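Sample intake sheet
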Amino acid sequence: MFWAVQQSLIFPLLILSGMLLPLDAGPRWMSVVASVNPVNWVVQAERHLMAGDLLASEVGWGVLCAAAVAVVGLVVGIRTMRRSD
């Protein structure tokens, strides 16, 4: 059950991150949603890092968003494991 909920959250986040499809040619609402998507900020940070732009502000935001996603995932994982006992 938890797997289905997880997948229903991950796929939209990946699609709206610009990692799988370019968001430039998409509708305006996709760009608006992508701007608040933490996965989008991680993807932007990775692009700047690959380009060698280590001091870009997007890198800082990407690190911050990656840490936030990791903390949320850890909390959800711990709660799920405790409830399964």
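Comment: The chain has a mean pLDDT of 87. Residues 12-83 form one domain.
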